[in-house]
Amino acid sequence: MASWPPRRKDQRDVGNAGGAMEVNVQALRTRFEPVLRGVFHLYWRFARGMTLGVRGVVLDADNRVFLVEHSYVAGWHLPGGGVEVGESFREALGRELMEEGRIEIVGEGCNEP
Q1: Does residue 56 contact residue 78 with C-beta atoms inside 8 Å?
Q2: Is residue 55 helix, strand or coil?
Q3: Exposure pattern of 19-44 as b/e (b: 16+ CB <10 Å)?
Q4: 49, 83 in Cβ contact below 8 A?
Q5: SS3 41
Q6: Comparing C-alpha atoms, which of 36, 34, 32, 28 is closest to residue 11?
Q7: What CA–CA distance (Å, rounded) separates 76 from 69?
């Protein structure tokens, strides 16, 4: 049986002892989302470990720089990514270059210790 008056999609019935009380879900979300976002950002800042990452500058014979365009962030960036547990910087960079551009590290790099 349909209720009267008709509700919008963002309204729901919440039962209580006195009958049905309409709650505007969108209004609740608009009101509490900024507060919850701040709480979650603060929690993750302390609960999550720091991510270690690598980036590499790759030049071709004409000194052109290899850049990648990711789907999850705007713009063009140097290739690179996160270092897995137990992985060296060189291994991580080699893996990232292979994943992002099918580029293999050959020989020694310019700035390796």
Answers
A1: yes
A2: strand
A3: eeeeeeeeeeeeeeeeeeeeeeeeee
A4: no
A5: helix
A6: 28
A7: 5
Residues belonging to the chain: 113
Spatial contact of 52 and 96, defined as CB atoms under 8 Å apart:
no
- Cα 34 to Cα 19: distance, rounded to the nearest angstrom: 31
Whether 54 contacts 46, CB under 8 Å: no
Mean residue pLDDT of the chain comes to: 82
The token duo for 7 is: 């509700």
Q: Which of 111, 106, 51 is nearest to 83 (CA)?
A: 51
What is the C-alpha separation between 37 and 27, in angstroms, rounded? 16
pLDDT digits (tens, 9 = 90+) for 34-83: 989 999 888 888 887 778 999 999 999 999 999 999 998 899 999 999 99
Q: Which of 55, 51, 53 is nearest to 109 (CA)?
A: 55
Question: Which secondary-structure segment (H or E) carries 13?
Answer: strand 11-16
The type of residue at 87 is: E
Return the amino acid letter for 16. N
